[in-house]
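Every protein is a chain of amino acids, and every chain bends into a shape of its own. Below is the pair of lines this work produces for a single protein:
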Amino acid sequence: KTFKVTFSSSTQILKTNILKAHSFFVSDYVFKAIIGLILSDMSAVRRGKGPGAGTYLRFGLTAKPSAQGFFQLVQNLIAPYCSENIKPYIHTWQDKRTEKTYSSISFNTLSLPCFNFFYFFFYKDKVKMIREDIIDLICPVVLAFWIIGDGSYSRNGLILSTDSYSYDEVAILQKALDLKFNIKTAIHKSK
């Protein structure tokens, strides 16, 4: 969809772009999916401080063939919030210790005010965190996207990678899973 209007001043164009950005909204399903994705590998980045300021979402995965379907699912779900010419960014690097080559693939959304909630809920001083009231947002859709994004299976059951959170934050998530779904969990340190 293209929004074409000709104005004589750049101030009018800026005001129009701000109004256009404020016209985006996030559906209930997409809202829940984003919560689950932020619990795993999605990040929210705040741009600007004024009334028209927005937040963009960045999603990336290790570029394994097994992750391609999930990456495409997320890209399709978030596509309405991206530029028309969305092109994933592929980053390749070599681990100097093992000399193995790794790749990741990512994309960003547009910077939109409708994403500000995610930034203010999950970030403090630009660091991702888990708040006590996450329990109010946990639901089956959130859990599904979190598991697909950061879950793995072992002989002992499901593992949710939470390495980027503190012990106390993981305990908050543990409590939320217990209260919402009666899922009993154990916290293990990664090796």
